[in-house]
């Protein structure tokens, strides 16, 4: 277990914490961010540098990641034996640390194409993404250089998944002959790509994860860059606000029966879960999906069973005024607000080894509810290099495309641009039970 201490950097925002309810940016809550990019770009090393330079690693832990008498920073996150043997990241590894200004949760996402599904899983709940670019892999002397395919793919994916803050970090500039020229050409190429793909980028930072340049402590003037270090920048990024402006929705995760049923003024069960959107309070009328029955909220309990109103992003236990048939996977919704739909147009990030073809049937997971989903039509595939939408009859592994789905049972959804929770589904192969795709409602 690691402990976190403070770093030398001064707090970058001394203002009081702001409320996400008011629509302001929350820069005091813990920031959950991921590192992603191509293979061997230095993602694990970067996280190791953040942990070591922020003094979030104990000495005995450091002693266990020595190779040839030197600390191998990548081993601080590559925890699986297969990762250490192969020198690659396979699964997402999470680490925690804090500075004087903020707490952080870091996800080290794999760069290999075959593990894209793990990267998508991590990005779906992230507040920020640091896309790492290895300067030594690019023709950095060429002003019109081409970015790596996986850099483009991961950038497109984190943007599709509505990760609020995206930062490009150009790594290994200490290993090129002219770091200033390399950073200028690479940052120009990134800017052109981001503009064409409509990816809002917070900053592009030159770093050396191995030597620590611009990771925790800024190196003014290095590569012609005078901005904040990566950590200073992360300290200023906002956490993702809870979706409190939408109507109330609540996926039921667990049903608990009261130990006593003597009180007949309300139902005898508590429905536990996390409020997805809006808020809930006693006296509120709700509709149960899929039954369509309505009831009035009698009690709302927080995670320690105190009676109080609960807003989106927090766990709640809801008691209704009467007995209604509600099971795990059902939804409680604000009455007369949402529309049901069995036809969905979605953007698909295809992650299965077998291509996606029209006519196939998958399990779709929405909240905690499982329904059958049939691929009605593949509308187009996105060309990762040109960003053009191409006609397609199938989606190969790791492709991104626009697909139409027909559901066996109607669901309540919102466009993913409005709600990351109501607008997302996971497709699962009915035979192998492997995660096949992330689907984002258009």
Task: Outline the fold blueprint.
Blueprint: E1 31-37, H1 43-53, H2 59-63, E2 66-67, E3 70-71, H3 81-86, E4 93-98, E5 103-108, H4 116-123, E6 128-134, H5 149-160, E7 165-171, H6 179-197, E8 203-206, H7 230-236, E9 249-257, E10 269-274, E11 279-280, E12 285-289, E13 294-301, E14 310-311, E15 315-320, E16 331-334, E17 340-350, E18 356-357, E19 361-366, E20 369-382, E21 389-390, E22 394-395, E23 400-412, E24 424-429, E25 435-441
Parallel strand pairs: 1-5, 1-6, 6-7, 7-8
Antiparallel strand pairs: 2-3, 4-5, 9-10, 9-16, 10-15, 11-14, 12-13, 12-16, 13-15, 17-23, 17-25, 18-22, 19-20, 19-24, 20-21, 20-23, 24-25
Write a structural description.
α6 links the parallel β7 and β8. The chain contains seven helices and 25 strands. The strands form six sheets. The chain has a six-stranded mixed beta sheet with strand order 4-5-1-6-7-8, sandwiched between helices. A six-stranded antiparallel beta barrel has the order 9-10-15-13-12-16. The two termini are 42 Å apart. The protein has helices at residues 43-53, 59-63, 81-86, 116-123, 149-160, 179-197, 230-236, and strands spanning 31-37, 66-67, 70-71, 93-98, 103-108, 128-134, 165-171, 203-206, 249-257, 269-274, 279-280, 285-289, 294-301, 310-311, 315-320, 331-334, 340-350, 356-357, 361-366, 369-382, 389-390, 394-395, 400-412, 424-429, 435-441. By secondary structure, it is of the alpha+beta class.
């Amino acid at each position: 277990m690691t402990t976190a201490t403070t770093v030398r950097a001064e707090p970058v925002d001394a203002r009081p914490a702001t409320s996400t309810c008011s629509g302001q940016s929350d820069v005091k809550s813990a920031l959950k961010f991921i590192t992603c990019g191509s293979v061997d770009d230095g993602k694990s090393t970067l996280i190791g540098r953040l942990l070591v330079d922020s003094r979030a690693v104990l000495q005995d832990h450091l002693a266990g990641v020595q190779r040839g008498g030197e600390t191998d920073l990548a081993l601080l996150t590559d925890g699986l034996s297969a990762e250490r043997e192969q020198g690659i990241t396979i699964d997402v590894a999470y680490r925690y640390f804090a500075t004087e200004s903020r707490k952080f949760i870091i996800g080290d996402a794999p760069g290999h194409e075959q593990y894209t599904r793990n990267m998508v899983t991590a990005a779906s709940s992230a507040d920020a993404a640091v896309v790492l670019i290895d300067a030594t892999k690019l023709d950095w002397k060429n002003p019109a250089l081409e970015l790596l395919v996986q850099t483009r793919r991961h950038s497109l994916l984190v943007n599709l998944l509505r990760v609020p803050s995206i930062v490009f970090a150009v790594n290994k500039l200490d290993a090129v002959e002219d770091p200033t020229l390399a950073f200028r050409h690479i940052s120009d190429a990134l800017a052109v790509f981001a503009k064409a793909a409509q990816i809002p980028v917070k900053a592009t930072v030159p770093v050396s994860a191995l030597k620590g340049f611009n990771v925790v402590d800024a190196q003014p003037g290095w590569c012609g860059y005078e901005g904040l270090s990566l950590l200073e920048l992360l300290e200023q990024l906002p956490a993702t606000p809870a979706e409190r402006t939408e109507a109330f929705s609540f996926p039921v995760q667990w049903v608990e029966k009261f130990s006593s049923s003597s009180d007949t003024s309300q139902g005898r069960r508590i429905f536990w879960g996390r409020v997805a959107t809006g808020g809930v309070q006693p006296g509120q009328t709700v509709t149960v999906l899929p039954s369509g029955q309505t009831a009035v909220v009698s009690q709302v309990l927080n995670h320690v069973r105190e009676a109080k109103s609960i807003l989106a992003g927090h766990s709640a236990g809801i008691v209704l005024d009467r007995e209604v048939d509600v099971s795990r996977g059902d939804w409680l919704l604000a009455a007369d607000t949402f529309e049901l739909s069995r036809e969905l147009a979605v953007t698909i990030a295809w992650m299965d080894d077998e291509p996606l073809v029209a006519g196939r049937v998958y399990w779709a997971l929405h909240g905690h509810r499982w329904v059958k989903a049939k691929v009605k039509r593949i509308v187009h595939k996105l060309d990762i290099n040109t960003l053009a939408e191409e006609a397609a009859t199938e989606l190969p592994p790791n492709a991104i495309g626009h697909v139409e789905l027909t559901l066996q049972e109607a669901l309540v959804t919102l466009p993913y641009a409005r709600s990351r929770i109501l607008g997302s589904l996971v497709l699962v192969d009915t035979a192998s039970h492997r995660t096949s795709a992330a689907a984002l409602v258009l």
